[in-house]
Design brief:
The protein has about 170 residues and is an alpha+beta fold. Strands 1, 2, 3, 4, 5, 6, 7 and 8 form an eight-stranded antiparallel β-sheet that branches. The chain is globular, with a radius of gyration of 17 Å.
């Protein structure tokens, strides 16, 4: 009889319970709190994500407002972003959950969005990066926030990268 060593989780092992119905509810509640604090302080509080690979330096957070594709009402989410000149790059990761986040579906239906970075608010047009653009942007996004690679490993879907450009 041989003793088998206990299995050690690999860095990209999918956390147990990620598909639990409570996870999206927790994300939604935390997002609402972050939006309220961010707006009240002009992004001084809630403007940096310092969890996971972002600890301790932090990764910048913006507020993205889309129009609900069913309700037509404005929907605001705090999202990590990469500044790229005049462009803002977003990742529809939703922490590696199996489905794309609702904000992504909303911007596919109506690409006119509003982005708030600190106290600056501007209208932008959002589009999904094509495969060549994604291939260039993904390593930069992972360099900014290494957990994006974990999230991609945890899901079967290809996580969309969104390019936001100034609205004409």
């Amino acid at each position: 009889m041989t003793d088998t060593p206990p299995t050690t989780p690999m860095p990209f092992d999918r956390p147990q319970g990620l598909d639990s119905p409570i996870v999206p509810k927790i994300i939604k509640l935390a997002s609402r709190l972050n939006v309220a604090v961010y707006r009240a302080t002009g992004g001084r509080i809630g403007g940096k994500w310092r969890i996971g690979s972002a600890f301790p330096r932090g990764v910048p957070v913006c507020l993205v407002t889309t129009r609900g594709c069913k309700s037509g009402l404005p929907r605001t989410q705090p999202l990590l972003f990469l500044g790229d000149g005049d462009r803002v790059i977003l990742v529809a990761s939703q922490g590696g959950l199996p489905k794309n986040p609702l904000w992504y579906r909303n911007l596919q239906a109506d690409p006119q969005i509003t982005i708030q970075i600190r106290s600056s608010v501007r209208g932008m047009l959002a589009r999904t990066a094509d495969p060549a653009e994604r291939a260039v942007l993904w390593p930069r996004l992972v360099a900014m926030y290494a957990d994006f690679d974990k999230y991609q490993a945890w899901t079967d879907r290809q996580i969309p990268v969104v390019i936001c450009e100034s609205a004409p």
